[in-house]
Amino acid sequence: MYKLRATILKDIRILTRDRVGLILMFVMPIVLAIVITAVQNSTFELVNDSKVPLLLCNKDNGAASRQLIASLEKMGRFQLTQITGDNSDQQIREKMRLKDALVAVVIPADFSAGIDAKSQQVARKALNDFGVQGDSSTIASQVLQPLTFYYHPVLQQSFRNSLQGALRSVLQLVESREIVKTLYLSLNEKELPLELENDIINNQVVINEVPVSRDGSRNIPNATQHNIPAWTVFAMFFVVISLGSSVVREKLNGSFVRLKTLPTSYLVALVSKQVTYMGVTLAQAGVIFAIGVYLFPAMGLPQLNLPSDISGLLIVTLICGWCAVSYAICIGVFAQTQEQANGFGAVTIVILAAIGGVLVPSFAMPSSFNFIMKFSPLHWCLEAYYGLFLEGGKLKDILMNILPLSIMIIFIQAITLWGLKRKNLI
Fold first, then answer.
1. What pTM did the predictor assign?
2. Could you read off the pLDDT of 316-360 as tens digits, one per residue?
3. How far apart are CA 11 and CA 277, in angstroms?
């Protein structure tokens, strides 16, 4: 025990001298967690809460276009700015070039006439099927001129699709309103009462959003709940920069050889490094979680809600940290130089993070990656954390995520021991 304690104190002193490693292990993930959570939270607010600036050029003077504009304003999704004049297209391009707005809609001149003709055509066909009116085959088809949707190239396709979906829903509402009014007028020979019109058009089923959780809670996950666990795992595995270099230095300066001449074993030093750096990973998790709980609300970001099973959170953090430390030692054992350990370790961590769902959510990956991501330890770490943070699970609920991690730890430790014996270091 005395040898282990002395070795741990030695590793702590070495660690405190490695300022670059400490910056990479603490400062970098903290900055990433803050910046990416802030950016993602702003994106969520832009999609869900904030109004999107929209340039609108109405070349039509009919009732349908006025209904369309009123519906867009009533939706509350867009902040409308109307463009008038003969050079409206040039004004739109100029304002979008200056990024005064990223989207614009042009209503064609015959929009109302086209909507009216289409509603009459649909109404006559319906009445013909009811046996109320004559043959509808003589009805000439009316081509409804499309709206023009301008967008700035910086907008991603997913965001454009959401905006077009909102625009299509408003268009469908205008068309349905005109069809209902035409049918009512044809059957009753009088205008559709406004109250009945609202009852017919606005009679929609309410959608109740309920996030699935294991404990029955209905806390809606936010950007913080997604990002803090992800970047905590990323920070843990980046101990490879400091720990891998430390192992390589000891190989190069002859520490392994000197240990062979002493009444001790390098396995003691190996256990010491694991204990020391597992303490580092616990400190990383504590710091990043504390930032999510206390600092994020002061910055206007959503607060991190810790899971109810704190003991399960501690066990998951310990296992994730142990896996990260085991991987870092393995890299240090097989690397020949510190540059190899730093370069290979950093690159592989980024790759494992990418295929593991840290950089890109796993559900957004191609189906071909479903098998590959299971070989990334970061994937299982992240799934274990998500089971606690997002699904409200307990430790028993995430055992199937902890088991693959435990197998990976045993496998990595075995490879490390094999490498040490192969190099005659133990």
1. 0.71
2. 999 999 999 999 999 988 988 888 888 898 899 999 988 888 877
3. 9
> Using H for helix, E for strand and C for coil, what is the string for the chain?
CHHHHHHHHHHHHHHHHCHHHHHHHHHHHHHHHHHHHHHHHHHHHHHHCCCEEEEEEECCCCHHHHHHHHHHHHHCCEEEEECCCCCHHHHHHHHHHCCCCCEEEEECCCHHHHHHHHHHHHHHHHHHHHCCCCCHHHCCCCCCCCCEEEECCCCCHHHHHHHHHHHHHHHHHHHHHHHHHHHHHHHHCCCCCHHHHHHHHCCCCCCCCCCCCCCCCCCCCCHHHHHHHHHHHHHHHCCHHHHHHHHHHHHHCCHHHHHHCCCCCHHHHHHHHHHHHHHHHHHHHHHHHHHHHHHHHHCCCCCCCCCCCHHHHHHHHHHHHHHHHHHHHHHHHHCCCHHHHHHHHHHHHHHHHHHHCCCCCHHHCCCCHHHHHHHCHHHHHHHHHHHHHCCCCCHHHHHHHHHHHHHHHHHHHHHHHHHHHHCCCC
- pLDDT of 217 strictly over 60: no
- Please tell me the distance from the alpha carbon of residue 238 to that of residue 84, in angstroms, as a whole number: 56
* Residue showing tokens 């501690």: 314
Distance CA 76, CA 139 (A): 38
Question: What are the structure tokens assigned to 33, written together?
Answer: 């967690």
51-201: CATH, from 3.40.50, 3.30.420, 1.25.40, 3.40.190: 3.40.190
The answer to whether residues 80 and 73 touch, using CB atoms and an 8 Å cutoff, is yes
Q: Do the Cβ atoms of 384 and 316 come closer than 8 Å?
A: yes
- pLDDT for position 273: 86
Return the residue matching tokens 């609920």: 397
Domain locations in the chain as residue ranges: 2-43+218-422, 51-201
Measuring CA to CA, which residue among 255, 257, 231, 262 is closest to residue 359? 231
Residue 240 · residue 24 · CB < 8 Å: no
What is the rounded CA–CA span in Å between residue 279 and residue 315? 13
CA gap 172, 237 in Å, rounded: 51
Q: Which amino acid is at 166?
A: A
